[in-house]
Design goal:
nine-stranded antiparallel β-sheet; Lyase_8; Immunoglobulin-like; single chain; eight-stranded antiparallel β-sheet; 8 domains; Jelly Rolls; 17 helices; GH-type_carb-bd
């Protein structure tokens, strides 16, 4: 290597200047306000909306809708020649509106914006109208029209204006018909208009460039209608494409920010200053630029050009609001080159090319231009950018000379070798035909093997039919013919023509076999004993309902409903879903053996006629969704897909396709990016798609459904889905394992069962996550056959679908998965199912209340002695992703339901659960042998203001809303989590109660046979009573439970009683094994009631429409309720109590006299408890300040558990971030010595073992996960 330098000078100074420049680019000029401002959107249509029919001609009377703003009408159309359609647009990848005119002036419009009240409608104020447009000609007139009411209010007339006109001379004209600019055909234009209704003016922009302004008529007040008009010209078809149409409130500029505080540039350099008007969605983003000294530097649209050494200032201001910034600019002399480095030698073949990459010293040399030359151009030449081309065999020297300083240069020796041409390329053994979805690796041989330029370029002439990767792997994407070529740079190559054919399963009967498989899930297998009493009960119940529906169905009434008790509604779509529920009941009766309706021809004829009537009137292929979207996209399609399976043999292919077309209309394209369904909703829709694919014999649909399943098996870290800790969330913020998770596991079980062993069987590695979900997500929340209520969301208020119903559905899903699982996993799942089914059976549930095709299978498992029921395990689960804690002790389960910034307090939707106000505020659940505690009419009669475990401000709450309940949102606290160690756990919640000023810090410590509940920092300024509820327990029907406080019996009913100095209490359970002891360590006064509580299901399950009214029967239960009164406006109040599950009266008294636990701390800084017999302690550190208790110090919010085992000379420690927000570290110090590390999580760093143990734990992205370490003490 040869390098020619000036005397070497370290370029520290120059590097320092560059470092300052880089740092300056990273410093914001000003503190930024909120990135976006709220601005109302009145109309928003992108034409990709799932409810809009695609590639369909729309005429007068048809409508289409946007995501905001309602339906648009179509006017003055003519069949086939003049119409509106939504189709893929040229030069875009999405759908656009297309207006076609041949013989008519076609219009489309959105009427009555702002309401329908006469004389007082429309949208006033300052507005922004945006759209993208594309015209196929410049010889047709096209207009964007607005209509306004005429001032003054109340208006009696209107005015139309052509706000923007594309005329027949290729001109764009404004509302005053003044010329703005020209336009061209076959080009997209982005239009923006600022409409100031008060000032009566419009400002125009095209492709973000200002065009001009125009005035509006003096009577103008608002925008009431929007029209898009296209005028025809005889003999020429006019086409107008429109997309991304939006009418929104004008968002004013409130400030300005810049990417740099100051700037330093060498002479002749340039750079961009990024300046943003605030908020980021401000309507007018125009900026004005200037410099104080244009001789030093100039600026054009934010690009600064440095001219000569000196200082100046770049000034930028907003067009609106006159917000401005000044950026100082220093222009420096250029940095000269000190040296250039090139490689010693390179080699290339004749005709080959290679570009040299010189390295400058210093690296920030200002002028890095070089002049290149070759001392033997006959051997190799070099161009102006350093690209060398080999000419002939030999060697030469290439020289690079600095343009800034010709004394600086470098050389490289270039050796040119002989060019060996490619003689041939042959694609070996290519197929001539492949099926859609197949993939194949093509191999091409290049001869000779040592050819100079043997690199191949693979190309498909129809990549939409066959795609090919850079290494020759092909994928068949569509039916048709494509030619795939492999060529060298010199054009030598080979090609293969591939015919892609429609895929077909190897077994032509596979569609029907799978369809029969699903049919059996509905009506049972042929082996089903219809004479069995339990089976008869089920099928006769269904047949009786079907008979009644049939008799009352009115096919010839010409009305808007088939049943008078299902009246039509224009706002609630539930009645449509209910229609299909009844039709499915009738289809089941028609296909189920053993009833009088089996294959009844009259029923069949009426059922088929009713299906056609539904498509004509209620679930039409062109309809617009209203009310609950779920009815249209999931509820009806689920029922209709089953009806199509059941009635398949009675339907023509045309009838089947007509029904599936309607389903497609509402669900939309599941392969589109706009399809974003997750979790249970996604599994429902994929199962709908599979059933449609089976009745259509549609290979493509089945592939799409299979591929759409893949997302179901993924873990999530936010929003909907399964979390690594076993949590399941739906609706973004609701803990829903026992409801939507129930639907998900059923759906996945059904999909895996239905597609098992088929051509469309899903095979993705993530499928194994399902087994983890069962073990870590479902098993913990199942208790003796039921799904615990704190994971069921609003489903707790459904009287016909209690926790055992949810548990049964979960078990059915698990059973489906067990049927298709590998043997070892299958046995584990069967054991789990058997354990819980036995409890279901003990409650009078029949096997045949499971899906009929599964019933005998599950019965066989239960009766098979080789399948051992799963054991009732002891464990603690912190399900931090959904803010739930589950502690499984010896024959009991204790649960805590919390809320946080991530998890809402409760959910009210469709009138369900309007009183769930406090169910997420630390409500506790105790499950034991009283398996009916939370079933029956518990939720109808419980006092929702005093739920056990909660601390509440006693106040009046609203329960009348049908959607969006009182306080139904995420609270402000981040803390809602804990940690687990072996079978023990500690959890906590910082309570910041929605709608009040009350705050509290609440902890629960769960050991072997006791739960310790602590509260501290209870503070409120609401001037209302604050209570902590210890218990609200449903009692026996005759109220005969014995209850004692400090040995004194308190039986019968008690409207209200205050106990001044209690030490303990004991409640006899409703059944054996359900007694509960209560300990009050600080003897604080408690209050209690023991009385009848009344309620109706209709109180907590509001009905809309009235035909869906929930049961109104007045129900009664006896309850015992205990609470601690903190008084009005408490300041730093506390509570302490313990729960002893299954303890006898004597055991409770003895525990009160000599408790196994010591409360180490109960303050708003730290809460801690030690279980002395277990040598286990738990700690909740509530602040990010250094805090020490019991020899344990933490510098951050943390949940910690420690177990010391003197016999084994070990210390075990668990820690978690209960806020789920710590992206840094928790540092812990233990007042103990250790001799070594027996095991630890990789995230735990041991800083020292002596004289104290110091740990540094990386909590980044742990999402509340428990981290463990085990130390040797000797």
């Amino acid at each position: 290597m040869q390098v020619y330098n000036q005397p070497f000078i370290k370029s520290f100074f120059f590097r320092f200047i560059i470092m300052l420049l880089v740092l300056s680019l990273m410093i914001p000029a000003t503190a930024s306000p909120s990135a976006f401002a709220a601005g109302s959107i009145y109309v928003n249509v992108n034409y990709d909306e799932s409810g809009n029919a695609k590639n369909t001609k729309l005429y007068n009377g048809s409508t289409y809708s946007g995501s905001v703003g309602g339906s648009w009408g179509i006017y003055n159309s003519l069949a086939e020649t003049d119409y509106v359609t939504i189709e893929n647009a040229p030069q875009r990848e999405d759908y656009s509106l297309k207006i076609v005119s041949n013989t008519k002036n076609v219009s489309t419009g959105r009427n009555n914006l702002g309401g329908t009240e006469a004389g007082n409608t429309g949208i006033a104020g300052k507005l922004v109208f945006e759209a993208s447009v594309y015209m196929n000609s410049t010889t047709h007139r096209r207009e964007i029209q607005f209509r306004s009411l005429n001032a003054p209010y109340p208006a009696t007339s209107t005015t139309n204006i052509s706000a923007l006109t594309f005329n027949t001379a290729g001109e764009i004209r404004d509302a005053s018909n003044q010329f703005l600019t020209h336009y061209e055909k076959n080009s997209w234009y982005k239009i923006k208009m600022f409409i100031d209704n008060s000032a009566r003016s419009i400002t125009y922009f095209l492709n973000d460039q200002y065009l001009g302004e125009s005035s509006l008529p003096s009577v103008w007040m608002n925008i009431r209608h929007i029209y898009l008009n296209q005028y025809f010209q005889s003999g020429m078809q006019a086409e107008w494409m429109v997309d991304d149409l939006k009418l929104a409130e004008y968002v004013s500029v409130t400030g300005i920010s810049t990417s740099v505080a100051q700037l330093e540039l060498p002479e002749s350099a340039s750079t961009n200053i990024v300046v943003t008007a605030l908020p980021q969605n401000a309507s007018d983003q125009r900026l004005l630029w200037s410099t104080d000294d244009p001789d030093v530097a100039t600026v054009i649209n934010g690009t600064v050009h440095a001219l000569k050494e000196g200082s100046t200032t770049v000034n930028v201001s907003t067009y609106e609001g006159n917000y401005s910034l000044a950026v100082p600019v220093a222009v420096t002399k250029p940095v000269p080159p000190l040296g250039i480095i090139l490689p010693d030698e390179i080699s290339l073949a004749v005709t080959s090319k290679q570009t040299l990459q010189p390295v400058f010293n210093p690296e920030n040399t200002t002028n890095q231009g070089l002049s290149w030359s070759s001392n033997s151009p006959a051997v190799a030449i070099v161009n102006a950018v350093g690209e060398i081309t080999g000419i002939s065999v030999g060697s030469t020297v290439i020289t690079a000379v600095s343009q800034a300083d010709p004394t600086i240069s470098a050389e490289v020796t270039v050796v040119v070798t002989p060019y060996i041409p490619v003689a041939s390329v042959a694609i070996t053994s290519p197929p001539s035909q492949i099926s859609k979805y197949d993939s194949l690796q093509l191999i091409a041989n290049v001869e000779p093997a040592n050819a100079t330029e043997s690199q191949l370029s693979w190309v498909s002439d129809h990549p939409e039919i066959v795609s090919v990767t850079a290494d020759g792997k092909i994928q068949a994407l569509g039916v048709g013919t494509a030619t795939v070529s492999a060529n060298t740079v010199n054009g030598v190559g080979d090609s293969v023509t591939l015919e892609v054919v429609a895929p077909q399963p190897e077994n032509p009967e596979e569609y029907d076999e799978l369809r029969q498989r699903w049919k059996e899930t509905l009506i049972g297998k042929d082996s089903l004993d219809v004479n069995d009493t339990a089976v008869q009960t089920i099928i006769e119940t269904n047949a009786s309902a079907a008979q009644q529906y049939w008799e009352n169905m009115q096919l010839s009434s010409g009305g808007t409903t088939l049943w008078n008790d299902l009246p039509a509604s224009a706002s609630d779509s539930t009645f449509i879903n209910n229609h299909y529920t009844r039709l499915k009941t009738m289809a089941l009766a028609y296909q189920t053996k053993g009833t009088s309706l089996y294959h009844n021809s009259g029923l069949k004829d009426d059922l088929l006629q009713a299906m056609d009537w539904m498509l004509d009137n209620l679930y039409t292929e062109m309809g617009t969704e209203f009310g609950n979207w779920w009815n249209w996209d999931i509820g009806v399609p689920n029922r209709l897909a089953d009806i199509l399976i059941l009635m398949y043999d009675e339907l023509t292919p045309e009838q089947i396709l007509r029904n599936t077309a309607s389903i497609d209309h509402y669900i939309g394209d599941i392969t589109s990016a706009s399809f974003t369904q997750t979790g249970a909703n996604r599994s429902d829709i994929m199962l709908i798609q599979v059933r449609m694919g089976l009745v259509e014999h549609n290979y493509d649909r089945l592939i799409q459904a299979r591929n759409g399943m893949s997302e179901l098996f993924q873990y999530t870290a936010a929003g909907d889905g399964f979390y690594e800790d076993g949590s399941y969330v739906q609706h973004s913020t609701i803990a829903y394992t026992g409801s939507y998770g129930e639907v998900l596991i059923q759906g996945i079980g059904n999909l895996m069962f239905l597609l098992n062993g088929s051509t469309w069987e899903p095979i993705v590695p993530e499928m194994n996550n399902v087994y983890r979900w069962i073990n870590e997500g479902f098993a913990p929340i199942l208790y003796k056959g039921q799904a615990i209520d704190m994971t069921r969301g609003r489903a707790i208020v459904r009287p016909a679908a209690d926790a055992y119903y949810s548990g049964r559905n979960i078990l059915a899903g698990i059973a489906r998965i067990a049927v298709t699982s590998p043997a070892e996993l299958s046995l584990q799942l069967k054991s789990l199912v058997k354990y819980h089914v036995e409890y279901q059976l003990s409650r009078g549930i029949s096997y045949y209340q499971f899906p009929l095709d599964l019933a005998d299978t599950i019965k066989d498992w239960v009766e098979d002695p080789a399948i051992v029921p799963a054991t009732d395990f002891q464990a603690h689960y912190e399900l931090s992703g959904m803010a739930r804690s589950v502690h499984r002790g010896e024959d009991f389960l204790f649960g805590v339901s919390k809320s946080s910034k991530r998890i809402a307090t409760y959910e009210l939707t469709n009138g369900e659960n309007p009183k769930g106000w406090y169910t997420g505020d630390g409500m506790t659940y105790l499950y034991n042998q009283d398996l009916s505690q939370y079933t029956g009419s518990f939720w109808a009669t419980v006092n929702w203001n005093r739920l056990p475990g909660t601390t509440v401000v006693s106040r009046t709450r609203n329960s009348s809303n049908y959607q969006y309940g009182d306080g139904e949102t995420v609270p402000l606290n981040s803390w809602a989590g804990g940690t687990t160690l072996d079978t023990f756990g500690v959890t906590g919640m910082e309570l910041i109660q929605n709608g009040t000023q009350m705050q509290a810090r609440k902890s629960w410590f769960t050991f072997d046979n006791e739960i310790v509940a602590l509260g501290a920092g209870i503070t409120s300024t609401d001037n209302l009573p604050v209570e902590t509820v210890i218990e609200q327990r449903k009692l026996k029907e005759d109220n005969s439970n014995r209850f004692f406080v400090d040995g004194e019996a308190l039986n019968g009913t008690t409207a209200y009683e205050e106990i001044e100095n209690p030490a303990w209490a004991y409640l006899e359970g409703n059944v054996t094994g359900s007694n509960i002891g209560y300990i009050f360590p600080n003897h604080s006064p408690i209050k209690l009631t023991r009385q009848i509580q009344e309620g109706r299901w209709s109180d907590i399950n509001l009905s809309n429409p009235p035909s869906a009214t929930a049961p109104t029967e007045l129900l009664q239960n006896y309850f015992l309720t205990m609470w601690i009164d903190h008084g009005n406006n408490p300041a730093d109040s506390q509570y302490e109590y313990m729960i002893l599950p299954n303890a006898s009266k004597q055991e409770t008294k003895e525990y009160a006299d000599s408790p196994d636990v010591t409360i180490l701390a109960n303050s708003k800084t730290v809460q801690a408890v030690r279980e002395n017999t277990l040598n286990v302690a738990g700690y909740n550190f509530w602040t990010d300040t250094l805090t020490t208790i019991d020899g344990v110090t933490s510098n951050k919010k943390a949940s910690v558990m420690i177990r010391k085992n003197p016999g084994a000379d070990t210390i075990e420690l668990s820690v978690s971030d209960p806020t789920l927000e710590n992206q840094g570290y928790i540092e812990l110090e233990l007042d103990a010595e250790a001799a070594g590390i027996l095991g630890k999580d990789d995230r735990i760093e041991v800083l020292q073992l002596s004289p104290t143990v110091k740990l540094k734990i990386n909590m980044k992205d742990t999402l509340g996960r428990t981290l463990l370490i085990k130390l040797q003490t000797q």
